[in-house]
Design goal:
58 residues, alpha+beta, 22% helix, 1 helix, two-stranded antiparallel ribbon
Length: 58
C-alpha cells in the first residue's frame, strides 16, 4: 500500500542497519516499548525523508 507511514513487516537487516546509522548521524530519536526482552513498538523521529515513508499529495 503506497503512501502508508508504517509497516508491520520487518525490513531487511542491511536496510535496518543503514537506517539506524543515518538516524544516529542526524541526531534522530528512537522510542521503544519492550515486553520483557522483545521490542513490541519501535518509533523513530527524524526529519529525513525515506521513500518507504513518503506520502504523495493528490
Amino acid at each position: 500500500m503506497p503512501g502508508r507511514l508504517w509497516d508491520v513487516y520487518g525490513f531487511h537487516p542491511d536496510e535496518t542497519r543503514s537506517f539506524l546509522a543515518t538516524l544516529a548521524e542526524s541526531s534522530g530519536v528512537q522510542i521503544l516499548a519492550l515486553d520483557e526482552v522483545a521490542v513490541v513498538v519501535w518509533c523513530d523521529v527524524t526529519s529525513l525523508t525515506f521513500e518507504a515513508c513518503a506520502t504523495s499529495a493528490g
